[in-house]
Amino acid sequence: GGTVIANVGGTITTGADGSGDGAHGVLAQSVGGGGGNGGFALSVAPAVAVAIGGGGGTGGNAGAVNVNQAATGPTVDTNGRSAIGILAQSVGGGGGNGGGAFALGGIVSVSVGGSGSAAGNGDEVTYNMANAKVTTRGTDSIG
Questions:
Q1: Is residue 142 part of a domain?
Q2: Residue 115: inside a domain, yes or no?
Q3: Over the stretch 68-97, which tens digit does the pLDDT of each residue have?
Q4: What HEC string does the chain produce?
Q5: 105: in domain
Q6: Does residue 126 form part of some domain?
Q7: Which domain holds residue 92?
Q8: Which of 49, 53, 69, 77 has the most crowded Cβ, counting Cβ within 10 A?
């Protein structure tokens, strides 16, 4: 994922009529892509069969996330269950799975599954909202 810059100003209200379940005030995130899965290998031969599964791809890195105050004293107000006031995150993508392998030979059969791969990295998250007023109303709702 790339760099995210969210400049927050004014007033943000979600679920004022009580229908704001899961309605976040501000969501700023960068997410790296997941690594691809390795391919499956199959080998069938009368004498010697060898199959090697493909390796998984590496997960992508996420970029930096910056949440900034664009005006003096922005207000964020959420009304509903699980409605987060401000959520900022940087999440690296998961690594891919290794591929399977199956070999069937009359004399010798060798099967080697592919290896999984590394996950991507998250990056720095900064929150510059010193004069913001964040209010959440609802079960499991956090600022």
A1: no
A2: yes
A3: 998 788 999 999 999 999 999 999 999 999
A4: CCCEEEEECCEEEECCCCCCCCCCCEEEEEECCCCCCCCCEEEEECCEEEEECCCCCCCCCCCCEEEEECCCCCEEEEECCCCCCEEEEEECCCCCCCCCEEEEECCEEEEECCCCCCCCCCCCEEEECCCCEEEEECCCCCC
A5: yes
A6: yes
A7: 4-137
A8: 53
